[in-house]
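Hey, can you fold this one?
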Amino acid sequence: MSWVESASEGGRPLGMVSNWKSDNPWTALVPLDLSSLHLFQADFDRLLLLDLRVCVAPNIEFLRESGVPNENIMVLLKYRPRAFMTSNDRFREIVKEVEEMGFNPLRKKVVIAVHAFRAMSKSTWEKKVEVYKKWGLSEDEILVALGKHPGCMMVSEHKIKEVMNFFVNKMGWESSFVPRNSLLVSLSLENRIVPRCAVYQVLLSKGLINSNNQSF
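Sure. Predicted structure:
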């Protein structure tokens, strides 16, 4: 009986493996500290059902060959294990696309970008790019936004439109403000952005800050 099968007996989830020892296939294939990995994501259970040598190990190894440190690979395994549920050919294409966009393999943003590319189809990606372009952003500015915070491409097209509309039409700021502060696209408009901007406008009206101070 395999370690996966034995872990599933007794009604426990496959991910809740108490006997996480050096003889399990993960330790042999993936020399990372995986001792607590099963605690983080239910999706990890599905990963355990795959043929690790065929489906997972080549993807992890390709990240290493591309210069991604083990600790950053671990981030992807912990929080977005589905990224590895991708065919080896497609996974390589995604990593190469991310590299061509100028992401530094030594930084965690590269694995966030890999997840972002993997999480949507190419047509969906292109539609989101077009939404940004309709607000006057160039491809270079969109790349800047992506480099600062890849999550700016993981929200819906509607959310992108809402955020751009708020900053450009309601705050009266240049559209280029958004790619320079692309983390804002991922924040809640109602709970985070609008209240902060309300405080900003009060401070501005009282002369406590100047209009060039657009920090959050």
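Residues 68 and 106 are 6 Å apart (CA to CA). Let me know if you want another pass with a different chain boundary.
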